[in-house]
């Protein structure tokens, strides 16, 4: 089985224009999203490796500084370090000496120094003695590399401020495994004398250190004093279709915070063995700039499956059109427009209320073109109970002639004589006149049985030609029974019960337009007793009123 939703079609220029406008808007939006975000392409993330080579020579403090001096290997991946400033402590031996004077190292006597204690700012282990650091200050004696390092600020200007003119060659190999594509950022016809410039040489992989900090909006001389961390970003956005467009774009920015403990430094030592067997070292506290090469990017290639998949996922956006129109209609329905017949009809067609069959009844009058719904419990006769229109009266007249032969039509006049006999006595009692409008209803004290075939006074429907032909015709009812069961015995003594029940169904189908209302449709008293008199039950023991 296949279930399809039911829609209501509204003939309205306004809402039709709104629907078309919204559909066009959604379609254009989907197209723009597909094009802008390249949803028609398959993507792959980049895998990369980085190699660097720094070059430059500086002369300062009567000393030559070459690459081996100022470039110190880093443990970090894809990073290199260039020294720009230095504090050097020479001729250190492992022995006892006064601690550098800081808050907890200053003392007045040996009691202030605890033997074996270590402070996080100390350079060694205290011996328990308080000794002179200089003529005015005493500090605790420590066992350390002496003389201890002085906690002074780095020199200004920086020792290697001329490293601004050093250059670095960055070689970056990338690989897109999904597309099996490899490329290097170094052009095949590289001019080794070129230097990167965003405008004139955007693809040159040789960078001047001063230009890198300038692109990062930093001053090299200021950063060189305490050091810093600079990111060199290489972005690969590659179109790998038949025409290859895969070139790197470089960007630069500072990573360390300039306001909260800026800079970058570390310590290392060089050790020497003296002829007397003692070990000596020189301690270097170096400041410099660490350059982190960050590589990221995406390879793209057209893929029809990706396009279909992404468009399919965005087709649901068209459902927003119906939702938006529904919201607009609800807003109009809640405003003054709700008085319009259009919105009343819309609400009636749009929403179908499902009621409990035991709590409602449906009635149909011959002088009204609709079916009326009446809710229980009844506080007055069913004839006078107030109800609501549930639908237009879709009467589908059952053509008895379609089931009857010409011979049956000839016998109809004879049947009319038999079927046209008057109802039993008492049908015209004064009690029934309070709710009966046709004069043929049976009196009853039960509210749910007090129903006439008419809303206003007039002839009874049981006296009409079509009632006799469609409901009471024995020939028609017998043929209908044989249509359902070809081997039915029409001479059975219980045949009247079957004919009576079928006559009830025929009336419901005629006056209510559908057998769906059979269990809730109420047959008027005059019609019900006319059918019962025509096809009586033995003992007149009838149950029900529908």
TrEMBL record:
Functional description taken from the UniProt entry:
Receptor for ATP that acts as a ligand-gated ion channel.
Q: Which organism is it from?
A: Fulmarus glacialis
Q: How does it sit in the membrane?
A: Multi-pass membrane protein
* BP GO annotations: bleb assembly; calcium ion transmembrane transport; membrane depolarization; organophosphate ester transport; pore complex assembly; positive regulation of cellular component organization; positive regulation of interleukin-1 beta production; regulation of transport
Q: Know the name of this protein?
A: P2X purinoceptor
Localization annotation:
Cell membrane; Membrane
State the source organism's domain of life.
Answer: Eukaryota
The residues covered by the P2X purinoreceptor 7 intracellular domain are: 362-546
Q: Does the keyword Iron-sulfur apply?
A: no
Q: Does the keyword Cell division apply?
A: no
Pfam families noted in UniProt: P2RX7_C, P2X_receptor
Primary residence: membrane
Signal peptide range equals none
Q: Which GO terms describe its cellular component?
A: plasma membrane; postsynapse
From the UniProt record, list the reaction(s) this protein catalyses: Ca(2+)(in) = Ca(2+)(out); K(+)(in) = K(+)(out); Na(+)(in) = Na(+)(out)
Which keywords annotate this record? ADP-ribosylation, Cell membrane, Disulfide bond, Glycoprotein, Ion channel, Ion transport, Ligand-gated ion channel, Lipoprotein, Membrane, Palmitate, Phosphoprotein, Receptor, Transmembrane, Transmembrane helix, Transport
Tell me which family the UniProt entry assigns to this protein.
Belongs to the P2X receptor family.
GO-annotated molecular function? ATP binding; extracellularly ATP-gated monoatomic cation channel activity; purinergic nucleotide receptor activity
List membrane-spanning regions. 20-40
The record's section on InterPro entries has:
P2RX7_C, P2X7_purinoceptor, P2X_extracellular_dom_sf, P2X_purnocptor, P2X_receptor
